[in-house]
Amino acid sequence: MDHDEAMQIEEDADCSHDSGCMLEESVGAPPFFAVQISREEFQRQAKEHTKEALQRLVGSLEFKQMQETCKTCNVCWSLEHISLECAECGGFAIQRPCPICSGRCGQLWTRDIDMSHAMRTAHWQGDCGLPKEQQQVYLYRAMMDDSETAISEALKELNTENCDR
Length: 165
What we know:
With about 160 residues, this protein is mainly alpha-helical. It has three domains: about 5-60, no CATH class; about 65-130, no CATH class; about 135-165. The chain has five helices and five strands. It has helices spanning about 5-10, 40-60, 60-65, 115-120, 130-165, and strands at about 20-25, 30-35, 95, 110, 125. The strands form two sheets. The protein has a three-stranded antiparallel beta sheet with strand order 3-4-5, with no helix packed on it. Strand 1 (about 20-25) and strand 2 (about 30-35) form a beta hairpin. It starts with a helix and ends with a helix.
């Protein structure tokens, strides 16, 4: 850089508080500007920067995988991993066939991640695609199957206790 160019850079630098002040580290280096801002402007910029950083974090693959990891058995649902023995996994990853009709309606339900974590059992969000009357039939059958299974198991335990005496 010759002497005339250096003088031009010096003349272009206006050190008023409104426009900033040019700082040079060495001749030939790109110019840097510092602008004095108010406390309110600093707080606004800090808030905006924090908001943008948080959005980048929440949108990152690492954060998604951390959120979509079972807190009980540590498998990653977003990678389609599950544990069949874990109540929080519930036998499925992020999506599952409709639990009302066992998928006959073709609808997929989505895991309620926050509730699954909080309750340590699988929770799902979705709607069955079958008419309400058919849904009620499936729900009734499921309740009866559970009741019959519970009664059957209780009778087996009762027989086992009687045989042991």
